[in-house]
Amino acid sequence: NAGVTQTPKFQVLKTGQSMTLQCAQDMNHNSMYWYRQDPGMGLRLIYYSASEGTTDKGEVPNGYNVSRLNKREFSLRLESAAPSQTSVYFCASSVRDREYRNQPQHFGDGTRLSIL
Amino acid sequence: GEDVEQSLFLSVREGDSSVINCTYTDSSSTYLYWYKQEPGAGLQLLTYIFSNMDMKQDQRLTVLLNKKDKHLSLRIADTQTGDSAIYFCAESIRAAGNKLTFGGGTRVLVKP
Q1: Which residue is closest to A56 within chain B, CA to CA?
Q2: Does A104 sit within 8 Å of B33, measured CB to CB?
Q3: What is the DSSP letter of B42?
Q4: Which residue of B lies nearest to A89 if distances are taken between CA atoms?
Q5: A24-28, A52-56, A100-104: the lowest-pLDDT one
Q6: Residue pLDDT, tens place only, B61-97
Q7: Are the beta carbons of A50 and B97 separated by less than 8 Å?
């Protein structure tokens, strides 16, 4: 049972390059999320998708775009990478219960991204 | 506003109990979570508590919630070296679309 799978695990980019981080979950979850984690800090929400076909901004969306390709997949794109986007990126997913409350989020192992 | 705070560091001897504390500000929280992160790994869900509960016990883990003081704690009994990690407290706020707000994490070091 794979859970949440992120690719790639590591990537080095030059300033100005573009890149798409991939995330897929096999748990039939409704909601998916992208976070970034910087040294000594907790996770900050970049974008999320409450259900297939919808996306919304989180706390730190600037410089990023997302696509909810289908129920399983949620990608994060950096159009023009900047050194400030050097971080570890985590994808997560969760399911809503009958009262439309999100159950705990399950996380992937992260993508470590360095921008030179 | 949403704000979750934790102490930065905790050192404990193997076999002792660890208590990790967290404070939050939003009173409309629905769930409060504890996640564990080992070096180079993702976040592993340890346990969670509904905001209408006071306590939850799960094997070596005990979560206590004081809603009046907006204080959450995680007690790990009989702490082992494998418990060395960063522990994150997070709240899910129903008014904010059930998004998670994380604390900055508490690094726990277990000494033999």
Answers
A1: B97
A2: yes
A3: -
A4: B42
A5: A100-104
A6: 999 999 889 999 999 999 999 999 999 999 987 666 6
A7: yes
